[in-house]
Amino acid sequence: MQFDKLDNDGSGYIELADYDRTAEALIKATGASVGSAAAQAVRAEYHKLFQRLADQLDTDRDGRISREEYFANIEDIYTTEGEYDILRPLSVAAFQMIDQDGDGRVSLQEFRAVGQAHGVPEAEYADLFDKHDTDGDGSLSLQEIHNFIEEYFASA
């Protein structure tokens, strides 16, 4: 269940700290310097995403999103934002950090960092990569990474 992935400490609430942990896991998995511009951009985009979601989902304004708040309103966010535009800035920041060799594509090796950061079992990396490599060129474009991030955040 997606709520449980986003609530990565199991507290029963999605909080900024959950997004911080995910950002740090991605930074660590890519081997990026914790103080690098790419790492800072990823952190900033996770913070912005959490704030945008909390603004719309945290109906009791306690600074966290309960399971009930999440499921009562999550569909509205993705349909009113217009094809997941809410996730585009995070996709760009994550892509720039994941693309470690700067060739404008993400290889399977680079993609492993995404899987590690999001708790994907290692045995599933290749299948997940192939699923999102929609043009079959053996690498992932920014759009294909964006599609992966959409799927991760939007699957309920």
Q: Roughly what is the average pLDDT, rounded to an integer?
A: 88
Specify Rg, calculated over alpha carbons. Answer: 15 Å
Q: Considering DSSP H and I runs of 4 or more, what fraction of the residues is helical?
A: 55-70%
* Beta-strand share of residues: under 5%
Distance between the termini: 6 Å
Strands, total number:
2
Spell out the CATH superfamily: EF-hand
Describe the sheet with the most strands.
2 strands, antiparallel
Provide the low-confidence segments as ranges. none
Q: What is the CATH topology descriptor?
A: Recoverin, domain 1
Given helix and strand content, the structural type is mainly alpha
Q: From N to C, what is the helix and strand string?
A: HEHHEHHHHH
Task: Estimate nothing, just give the exact number of structural domains.
Answer: 1
Q: Can you list the strand order of the major beta sheet? A: 1-2
Number of helices: 8
Which features characterize this protein?
mainly alpha; Recoverin, domain 1; 3% strand; EF_Hand_1_Ca_BS
The gist of it:
Pfam families: EF-hand_7. With 156 residues, this protein is mostly helical. It has eight helices and two strands, in the order αβααβααααα.
